[in-house]
Amino acid sequence: MRKIGWKNGCDFAFTIIDDTDNATVKNIKPVYDYLYSKGIITTKTVWAYPPRDKYKGESLSDKTYAEFIKDLKQKGYEIAFHNAGSGGFKREETASALNDFKTLLGEYPNMHINHANNTENIYWGYERFSGLVRWIYKVKKAHIPSEGTCKNSEYFWGDICKEKIRFIRNRTFNGINTLKEDKRLVYRETGKNEYSNYWFSSSDAMKEDSFVKLLSKENIDKLQKENGLCILYTHFGYGFVDDNGNLSEDFKRAVDYLASKNCWFAPASEILDYVLKDKEYKPSKFYEFFMDIKWFFERIKK
User: Fold this and answer.
1) pLDDT class for 141, splitting at 50, 70, 90?
2) Does domain 7-81+167-301 have CATH number 3.10.450?
3) pTM greater than the 0.90 cutoff
4) What is the C-alpha separation between 161 and 260, in angstroms, rounded?
5) Which among 44, 94, 178, 235 has most CB atoms closer than 10 A?
């Protein structure tokens, strides 16, 4: 298992990437208030514009939400890009969204997370994978577009992505120790270098119940013992806060125990850069194929 000497002599490292789907100030602010009170600084994704499809959630075009995001940024939280919004956004709209992001927050996002079925996604759908998994995914998920890297498409923005975005998330795994699940963790993927830079893996805890399950005391103790790293991917807009604004007690207990540990808490990009400084890998096609197979069977199990 890969071992890294974590910053400040910490036993392990931990971060969260919060997918902005269904997020509003009302249903996520209590989550961030609690995390901040415990010294846990993480990564929050945003949309620049309102959703155009079935998905819900606020965006930077909402004044109150924008002020909330600015406050998070000032507190040290990383703000990442989750496409211009939910639904298809053409090249000029994506470029405008990134400029609006910079105007509000003072810099372009360091990280991008592809959203659902957006046409302008970067190397998404079956293009995420290789070999057999690519073929299966293409057959089963042929409706998922990925035109962000197609030069002839009106949704193309791959050149902009390459210039401005450093990290993109790809595979998610079920275990808490992301570094154990994918010991390379962050690297340039074969066949994706033209319009992207680094790709990374994460640990899957999509909603409140799976978040609490992943952050059990046993799992946290194991992560500490393994000198590991958890990049936890979740959606704070789903079930962490009830309709009356009350934060999940199970969530608070999990966070309390986590915060009691000798752990390095930092935004995802900061941790990924630290891992890259430890050693930058150039994975073989075989390693990437192995990760795809592992991802495939873990998704079936999930």
Assistant:
1) low
2) no
3) yes
4) 38
5) 178
